[in-house]
Specification:
The complex is a heterotrimer.
Chain A lengths: L16 H8 L7 H18 L1 H4 L37 H37 L1 H16 L2 H11 L4 H28 L2 H8 L4 H37 L10 H10 L8 H29 L1 H4 L1
Chain B lengths: L12 E12 L2 E13 L4 E5 L6 H9 L6 E10 L2 E2 L5 H7 L4 E4 L3 H4 L6 H12 L4 H14 L16 H13 L5 E5 L7 H18 L3 E5 L2 H7 L2 E6 L2 E7 H6 L4 H9 L47 E5 L2 E4 L6 H8 L2 H7 L1
Parallel strand pairs in B: 3-8, 3-9, 6-7, 7-8
Antiparallel strand pairs in B: 1-2, 1-4, 4-5, 9-10, 11-12
Chain C lengths: L1 H30 L15 H11 L5 H13 L13 H36 L4 H15 L2 H15 L18 H5 L2 H18 L1 H14 L3 H8 L4 H38 L5 H10 L3 H29 L1 H4 L2
Helix pairs in contact in C: 1-13, 4-8, 4-9, 4-11, 4-13, 5-9, 6-8, 6-11, 8-11, 9-11, 10-11, 11-12, 11-13, 12-13
The chains are: A mainly alpha, B alpha/beta, C mainly alpha.
């Protein structure tokens, strides 16, 4: 990500913080791509919530045909399986539907943690400056020196493989980008007249941060959070594909690993390994489109 | 407007009824709305007015390198027997820099930061002037000496020069191909007063020595008074008054010029009087008022100013765009008093 | 003077990051379940081997002593014995590193050449239908899981069309007399094509989008307008002035991209059974070959850190405003 130019947001000092936060989070509904992205999200969220009713089978169940043969490697449509079956006789469509659950769960929790940790660190570093800033920014340098995917792999393998460990491993590294951007934003905010004035007037740090700085930081945090959703989903897919994923949950990455290990490529079973990839692309690019629309909304200069 | 009114004998450049408009959304803003003036050979013509009056737009229109949304919508730019407003782009491009060179306001942003000054001079000399590498090198040194910079600094990058030096580099660049006309767009505005003066002296000295023809665009009437031979005063997209510097500044005939003179300190005489600003702001060019465009700010406005003002020649070669141009001698006396301008506010 | 100071503090920062990453690595491999000795000692080693390794890594000593011994060993380039290969980890890594670097650099060079040209083109055609369709398409390539793209390419071009081999670096049984002989052979290049294409398709988006937005910014600069007023040809204006300036940040992003790519390699190498560091890391972690996993991780981290440094230096070198301050 290129560094984003610092926007000027705040004008009125007294405006209700909540109203401003809400306004800051206003979704970019006039950008066609952003709208498409929001719709894609909506579809996947609905799918994830109602997975139990949408799925035609238990995604883990080994299925048999009416003739009591293992329902393995069936093509789409055969024996009534909409998208075919895996080599072990599981329903591809149902796995795909349940996969949306872990994708969204991982994506949103990881993004939330990345945005939260990154924003808090960036805020503290930028606001307090001096040695606090130095220490935190050196920590960011260190985080930039850690190879991300290998780090997540090693942690996921050594700790018990679970969704949460993957999320934690991601948050431990990815806060760095958000923190740097938020920090530079805070630095410019801090030098603004109204923040100086509040300090001179003796407002507490907590009050200044909450009233004057946080509302201006929120859109940026949200922006970086939405970028992190895509990263998290892609990372989870990679981890599961390599076999270090949560064994108890069906994810798109797991489906791809299963397909790859079961020679789906040689068998030309496109119906098996193409759909999970397309789902990942849809969700991640939906995030990109929303981010882009959001960026245009926040920083109109950049968009053109 | 007839030819005789503007008569400058054998002008190098004649602008006739020039119109330049910017497209903003679905509307057109006529930044230059029927401007006419002449630029004689071998002298400096000052194009003066407030920001937004269209002077920079004219300067850029003469090169035909304009903003994406700007276009020449009418009129003529007669130069060297050609109408620059009409000739094809190819022909125009052949003429750029060889015949018409440009000195920008901020040489810092106008020089490419990643090349040395020598490269940028050489680029013009070789690609546009047809010189070979050795000739270009010699010419670079010659140009640097002309503008008073040590040729040893040719291999420096733009950011290594001071503001005044960079402006000298920009002048050297403009002189490179011995152009017939140099357009200088606020060439000293970004500099401090002492450096301003040095650069202006340099420009004047070069102009006299080489017989250059220069259009100097400025908002600063004291700069005009300091080095210009002729003045074109612009207001809200139109030429308010044009003539010799002496005529337009010592005996201005348009109320706007009178006000402008009061609003600036005199560069030449140390006895600075009280500065009187002209109250108010120029009209919005997206929707200009009918009749005289200065009438809302003019202390001498009458009812008849609601009609389109005529061009009146108060002296040979000194046209004025004002209903009351003939009374200018009397108005000047009133205009010299500060109260006149306070009252209108 | 200030230049020296800047370089000095940058090097100090580098040393800090190196130390921190090495320490994190040490702690990480002590975090794993079970006996900490397992990090270095495979139960199937002979008693003699076990004792020798115990002494070498100080595994019977307290943690802080182990840490010091670990640092000392690292400084001497001693990374331990691989369990699976029964050979020094260092040898194994030096064997695999060229494969990874060749894959990384060949794909990135293709990606950057394409991305820079296409990005400049799209900036030039800004607002056209070409740009309107290309940008979402490029964003989509950024949204692909790299390994999935690899799978699709494999299924089509290898299994279905049979144009390219399915994995590895050479045909079984093929022998080569040396380094250069192997890496310039048709055989090797055919094996390289698909994994490199996968990584290139994924990576071209970054230089493309960066180049495009830089070009759009630079085209608005005064010096580009001046170049037009000078009557320079369109080519000179766009290439020599606009593109030359827009290229600066793109070039520095190359170094950073090498670091990122190395991480992406982990999955793509696995898909194509490409014997590189990434695949070795995955295999080593999966088969609990801890010394090898640690070594591979360290090597990847070193390249990432070095590339971050290179990016900074490249920027200073390429931009006369910094190099001729």
């Amino acid at each position: 990500m290129p560094e984003i130019a610092v926007p000027t947001m705040a004008r009125s000092r007294r405006a209700n913080i909540f109203a401003r936060m809400f306004r800051a989070l206003k979704l970019p509904t006039n950008d066609p791509f952003a709208v498409a992205g929001l719709l894609i999200y909506l579809v996947f969220i609905i799918t994830a919530i109602f997975a139990d009713s949408i799925a035609t089978h238990d995604p883990n169940e080994i299925l048999y045909t009416p003739a009591y043969d293992l329902a393995a490697d069936l093509r789409p449509g055969q024996e009534g399986f909409v998208m075919g079956t895996t080599s072990l006789g599981r329903d591809v469509f149902s796995q795909l539907v349940y996969g949306s659950r872990s994708a969204l769960l991982i994506g949103i929790t990881a993004a939330f943690m990345v945005a939260l940790i990154g924003s808090v660190i960036g805020l503290v570093a930028g606001y307090f400056g001096r040695w606090v800033d130095t220490v935190l920014m050196r920590l960011a340098d260190i985080a930039f020196g850690i190879p991300f995917l290998p780090f997540v792999i090693v942690l996921a393998a050594f700790l018990k493989p679970s969704i949460w460990n993957v999320v934690i491993a991601m948050a431990l590294v990815l806060w760095r980008d958000t923190a740097r951007v938020i920090r530079s934003q805070v630095l410019t905010l801090r030098s603004r007249g109204y923040v100086e004035a509040a300090r001179v007037a003796g407002s507490s740090h907590f009050k200044i941060i909450l009233r004057h700085i946080a509302p201006n930081i929120l859109p940026l945090s949200f922006l970086y959070g939405s970028i992190a959703i895509g990263w998290a989903i892609l990372t989870e897919a990679s981890i599961s594909f390599l076999g270090f994923g949560d064994p108890d949950s069906i994810s798109w990455g797991y489906m791809l690993q299963d397909a790859f290990a079961s020679q789906a490529l040689a068998k030309q079973a496109y119906y098996w390994f193409v759909p999970p990839g397309v789902c990942i692309i849809l969700v991640v690019s939906a995030g990109f489109f929303i981010t882009r629309g959001y960026e245009n909304l926040l920083f109109p200069k950049l968009g053109r | 407007m007839t030819e005789s009114l503007l008569s400058v004998r054998d002008p190098l450049l004649s602008v006739r009824d020039l119109r330049v408009s910017y497209q903003v959304g679905r509307n057109f803003v006529h930044a230059v709305d029927g401007a006419s003036f002449d630029v004689p050979k071998g002298s400096i013509t000052g194009l003066v007015g407030e920001s937004g009056c269209g002077k920079t737009t004219i300067a850029r229109a003469l090169t035909r390198v304009m903003a994406d949304n700007a276009s020449i919508s009418g009129g003529q730019i007669l130069f060297d027997g050609k109408d620059l407003a009409k000739i094809p782009e190819r022909e125009m491009n052949a003429l750029r820099w060889r015949d018409i060179a440009f000195v920008p306001q901020s040489a810092m942003n106008s020089l490419d930061p990643v090349y040395t000054v020598e490269y940028q001079l050489g680029e013009v000399l070789r690609r546009r002037g047809g010189l070979d590498r050795r000739q270009a090198r010699a010419r670079c040194e010659e140009l640097f000496e002309m503008v008073g910079i040590d040729p040893g600094r040719l291999t420096d990058y733009p950011h290594q020069f001071s503001g005044g030096m960079r402006q000298r580099v920009a002048i050297a660049l403009a002189l490179a191909l011995n152009p017939k006309l140099i357009i200088a767009d606020e060439p000293v505005t970004a500099l401090d007063v002492i450096v301003q003066r040095q650069i202006l002296d340099q420009l004047k000295e070069l102009q006299e020595r080489l017989g250059l023809s220069v259009i100097l665009v400025t908002h600063d009437i004291s700069v005009v008074a300091y080095i210009c031979d002729r003045t074109v005063v612009m207001y809200a997209g139109k030429v308010a008054e044009s003539g010799t510097m002496q005529a337009t500044l010592t005996a201005p005939s348009h109320p706007y010029s009178m006000g402008l003179r009061n609003a600036f300190p005199d560069l030449q005489s140390a006895a600075a009087g009280i500065l009187t600003p002209i109250e108010g702001a120029p009209p919005n060019l997206a929707n200009p008022p009918a009749g005289c465009r200065f009438k809302q700010r003019c202390p001498f406005a009458l009812d008849l100013c609601g009609a389109e003002p005529p061009v009146i020649e108060v002296a040979p070669g000194h046209p004025v765009l004002c209903h009351r141009a003939k009374e200018s001698a009397a108005l000047r006396i009133d205009a010299a008093r500060t109260e006149t301008w306070m009252a209108s506010a | 003077m200030s230049n020296f100071k800047a370089v000095g503090s940058r090097l100090l920062q580098l040393a800090l990051v190196l130390w921190a990453v090495v320490t994190i690595l040490f702690l990480m491999f002590r975090l794993m379940p079970g006996n900490p000795m397992a990090a270095y000692i495979d139960p199937t080693f002979t008693v003699e081997q076990q004792q020798q390794l115990m002494a070498q890594f100080g595994l019977d000593k307290p943690l802080w002593q182990q840490y010091l011994i670990y640092l000392g060993n690292l400084l001497q380039g001693e990374l331990g014995q691989s369990f699976r290969y029964r050979e020094p980890v260092g040898d194994r890594i030096w064997l695999l590193l060229p494969n990874t670097l060749i894959l990384t650099f060949s794909s990135l060079i293709v990606a950057y050449v394409f991305g820079i040209l296409a990005g400049a083109y799209l900036a030039w055609r800004r607002g056209s239908w070409v740009e309107q369709t290309a940008i979402p398409l490029v964003l989509t390539t950024r949204a692909m899981p790299e390994f999935w793209l690899g799978m699709v390419l494999l299924a089509i071009f290898s299994f279905s069309l049979g144009w390219f081999p399915a994995g590895g670096t050479r045909n079984p049984g093929a022998e080569y007399s040396g380094f250069l002989d192997l890496y310039t052979s048709r055989d090797f290049l055919a094996h390289l094509a698909l994994p490199a294409a996968t990584l290139a398709i994924y990576s071209q988006g970054l230089p493309l989008l960066l180049m495009r937005s830089n070009m759009l910014d630079v085209m608005k600069e005064d010096f580009v307008t001046m170049a037009r007023i000078k009557g320079l040809s369109n080519w000179t204006v766009v290439v020599r002035h606009a593109a030359r300036n827009a290229l600066l940040p793109v070039m520095t992003s190359f170094a950073i991209a090498v670091g990122y790519q190395l991480q992406g390699n982990v999955v793509v190498e696995s898909v194509f059974s490409w014997p590189g560091l990434g695949r070795e890391l995955v295999n080593a972690v999966a088969s609990s070959d801890y010394p090898l996993a640690q070594g591979a991780f360290l090597m990847i981290a070193l390249v990432v850190i070095f590339m971050n440094l290179l990016a900074d230096m490249l920027y200073a070198f390429l931009d006369p405003r910094i190099s001729h301050a």
